[in-house]
Amino acid sequence: MKQQLNKCLKQAGAMLLCITMLFFGAGCQEQKDVSKASDKRLDDVNYLEQNYSNRTIELPAKVEKVDNLIFSKGHIYIWADHGLYRKTSVEADWEKLECELEAESDISALGEFSDGSLMAVISGMTGGVGARWIAQLSKEGEILSKEQSGAIDELVGVGVVNQEDKICFFAGDNGKGYVYDQEGKLLNKIEKSEMGGFLGATLDSQGSFVRLMNTDQLYAESVTGENEVQKTALIHSILPTYETGDVHIYQGDETYSFYFDDSTSLYGYREDGTVDCICVFSDIQLDGKNSKITVLSDGNMVVYDKELNELSYYEKSESKDERIVLELAGLDFSLKSDIITLITRFNKTNTKYRIHVTDYSIYESPETKLNTDLNAGKIPDIMYLSGVSYRNYVHKGMLADLLPFLTSANSQISEADLFSEVISGAKEDGKVFELGIGMKGSYLIGKKTTLKGKEHFTPEEFLEAAEQLPDSETMFPPDISAIEVLKQSMDVDDYVDWSEWKCNFEMDTFERLLEYAKEYDGEDILWADESMQEELSEDRIALTNFTMSNELAEYARLQYLMQEREITPLSTPSASHSGYGFTFEHPFGIMENSKHKDGAWEFFEYFLSEEVQKQLLQKTLLSYRRDCYQQLLADKKKQGIQINDVSIDGVEEDVISAYDQIFSKLDHLCWTNEGDEAMYDQIWSVIAEEAGDYFEGKTKSKEAISHIQSRVSIMLDESR
Amino acid sequence: MFYMLPFLVVIAYSFVKSPMNPTFVGFENYGQLFHNDAFLLATKNTVFFSLVAVVLAVVLSLACAVALHSNLPGNSWFRTFLVSPLVVPTASVILVWQVIFADSGTLNQFLKIFHIPAVEWISSDFGQVVILVLFLWRNLGYNMVLYMAGLQQIPKEPMEAAKLDGANRWQIFFKIQFRYLSSTTLFVAILSLVNSFKIFREVYLLTGEHPYDQLYLLQHFMNNTFASLDYPKLSAAAMTLAVIVAIVVAALFLFDNWYGRDVEE
């Protein structure tokens, strides 16, 4: 019996181990996907981490803006301010060529032959429509012949390189290619492609036409004969979000068949099919998203930064960057050029720190990979909080309080510089865990009379007002969907107690809101446009929404509506009167475990600096830095303002005062930081799914509410 | 070490505040876990499902095996039908299940013919029944093959002797055959238990990360807890479950040793 028991216990022990691993494995089931990607981004790429030094190259005299940058046969060409300039080496002076084109024409592409003569693609207009010509130019740039090419003309984009006195033109969305000789004779016409997703083409070091294709992976196709694909090579097995314009290809040299960049890194493709990542642009202070790049034959680069209007020479350097590296991680930077630009600028200006970015979007399961890294102790200094559950990070104590930095005497930015209501709204238990590059928000606008002069109203008051509307008027436009009505008329915070992570949707008000929303059977979402504002002012609808932006005309219009039509901004119906919601645009936090919190705060100081905020305000971001608006307003007053699309009489005269008044109100309009978009999205997706079933008649309101309650409860309990 | 290390790491994680801040917190994570409604609900659902699923899987597969063992006509066809779900990919199974059990699916359309109102098969209390049917459909065949192998190993002499002594079919089955099958039953039960935990894959594909109350299983809790960066809670849950399962498995082993003792001698 004792032996049997021992045997049993041994077997049970082994079983315990297996079953524990089975359980634990369930928790981490997606990790197998992640293991495919190495720690250093794409696992099929060799990372060289080549350092580059950079220096500015003077632009030709009187040139203000570069339109195109081309490298060919060891010479650098720029097409700038309607003139063609050449530099025979980085050190040489610019020489202006004798190329003269019509007013609306420019040089899209250009290649140089051994004898110095040139062949170019000229884009312009003929008979009121766009056209392209293949032109032969003398060494001095004089146009010798110019022939409109039907083939080239139909192509979308055109590029050109040359090798061994052959020149190729490529473009379109299907990888078409045309290889010409020096006399302009068409040598090879490539029209067939095995796959779609054409990104760019060049002639490789062997003289073959090679193109980059992007289906679900990144491929290089080498085409030597007419329409014959000789070799297809897989370049990347994992595809970042490449789009047309993200990837550029350059002629190769002795080491590489060709070079290419994906706006974030420079790669070299070797003949044996291996790919080297030569450098990551943000590591060498190169803003790949906003630059025109040309790779020289030795792997050095000439870069034109469109934002800074600056031409630079990036030369390979053996010296190492001795600055302290701040690790910045996020789930997706791929399409957010503003951030990459910002980081690159920070790296360029800061002498003590430089930021290295880890973009988890390149992994198959970004969030799982990020969580695995965090749990394994690979913690960044700065976290890009877009797409991650901010509340979870705060709840787990992973984010540092930014308030001590903000109130420190040494800080270059103080709380007083920022909108007080924004900072106050961003506080969680008296601490600030995230700050954004900018902010965004939208709120309802409605007639003062409809809501009896109130700016904040409860769901009950909202429903009461809806009941009292005349038959000719509806609360929202009748063509919007029931889900949209529900979204606009409820505040999730009314039903969730974030301090206890509990929810209560089983309330009479929520059921009444559901029943009210069901009355709408449209399909649209509520979109802030002039037609809705017209409907509002003509008493056909009682509410619409308004999205904060820095578009002067929109505020002028709102100001007009407020003054002339008694319309007022309103918060979302909320029992807690939480006020007008806003979210930070591109929010960042400093990780509690960061060893370089001071360095990380320097990045915050940088993006909240007056200079950067003013630049962002010129684009589309809404700043929460007070003095930016004062300065901007002063500038506008100085310049005088032209508004073309405000059609209401009298508005033009009031624009300055409207601008002044509205921006002074911006602070007041930002009360509550609805910081955790990820968590709100999760909760809202459950509400929308269950409410959707109710609106479609599949369930009763009580059933829908019960489902919402149970599912959201589980969600919150898990995070508690 | 290769096998033990992950296990030890899980134990260690269950006693710290977080992997990023590895302060020893004793049994705090376990305390929080036992007060967590989501964990308690998931445990209740998983235990209930496993209990019913394992019992049914054992009983029904044994019944099928015995039926097929008795040379009924069309045996090979039945065997093929019962084993075929093993080779069907999970994703395809789920697709078929969705077609059948959707609100406007085949089953509800069929009920409509008899003027029976549509039933929310997945999002109501019927959810577990649907999953149970899916589990049995998928696992009966393999269990049955194991039982058939076990049945063929039983020596004929004891049964013939029992027949001569006047034992009826039921007595022969329970007193002789079933006792010879005790090791197979133990194996089938453990296998079914493990497979009952794996039903999460099907539930996840049917209902997503946050399903309805009845279908919320421990693997949901663990997966979602991993996503919300709560490794200590996840580790404490894994350890708790491992201990419970180990106790169940040990009990099964003990029962097998007791029940099959004569057979072994």
Furnish the topology, listing elements before pairings.
The complex is a heterodimer of chains A (720) and B (265).
Chain A: H1 2-27, H2 31-35, E1 45-47, E2 51-57, E3 66-72, E4 75-80, E5 83-87, E6 95-96, E7 106-112, E8 118-126, E9 129-137, E10 143-148, H3 150-153, E11 159-163, E12 166-171, E13 176-180, E14 186-190, E15 198-203, E16 209-214, E17 218-223, E18 229-236, E19 248-251, E20 258-261, E21 265-269, E22 275-280, E23 291-295, E24 301-305, E25 310-317, E26 324-330, H4 337-349, E27 353-359, H5 366-375, E28 382-384, H6 390-395, H7 403-407, H8 420-426, E29 427-428, E30 431-432, E31 435-447, H9 459-468, H10 482-489, E32 496-497, E33 502-503, H11 508-517, H12 530-537, E34 543-547, H13 552-564, E35 567-570, E36 581-590, H14 597-607, H15 610-618, H16 626-639, H17 651-666, E37 672-673, H18 677-695, H19 701-719
Parallel strand pairs in A: 1-22, 26-27, 26-28, 36-37
Antiparallel strand pairs in A: 2-25, 3-4, 4-5, 5-6, 7-8, 8-9, 9-10, 11-12, 12-13, 13-14, 15-16, 16-17, 17-18, 19-20, 20-21, 21-22, 23-24, 24-25, 28-36, 29-30, 31-34, 31-35, 31-36, 32-33
Chain B: H1 4-13, E1 16-18, E2 21-24, H2 28-34, H3 37-69, H4 75-83, H5 90-101, H6 106-113, H7 127-153, H8 156-164, H9 169-180, H10 182-198, H11 200-207, H12 218-227, H13 231-259, H14 261-264
Helix pairs in contact in B: 1-13, 2-13, 3-7, 3-10, 3-12, 4-7, 5-11, 7-10, 8-9, 10-13, 12-13
Radius of gyration of chain B: 22 Å
Strand residue content of chain B: under 5%
Poorly predicted segments of chain B: none
Number of helical stretches of at least 4 residues of chain B: 14
Average pLDDT confidence of chain B is: 86
Any idea what the shape of chain A is?
A: globular
Q: Major sheet of chain A, described briefly? A: 8 strands, mixed
| Radius of gyration of chain A, CA atoms, in whole angstroms | 30 Å
Task: Please state the oligomeric state of the protein chains shown.
Answer: heterodimer
**Helical content of chain B (DSSP H or I, runs of 4+):** over 70%
Number of beta strands of chain A: 37
Largest sheet of chain B: 2 strands, antiparallel
Which two chains have the most extensive interface, and how many residues on each?
A-B, 52 and 55 residues
Structural class designation of chain B: mainly alpha
**Number of strand elements of chain B:** 2
Topology order of chain B in helix (H) and strand (E) letters: HEEHHHHHHHHHHHHH
Average pLDDT taken over every residue of chain A:
77
Question: Low-confidence spans of chain A: pLDDT under 50, at least 5 residues?
Answer: 12-41, 642-653
Structural class of chain A: alpha+beta
Shape of chain B, please? flat
Provide the spatial order of strands within the biggest beta sheet of chain B: 1-2
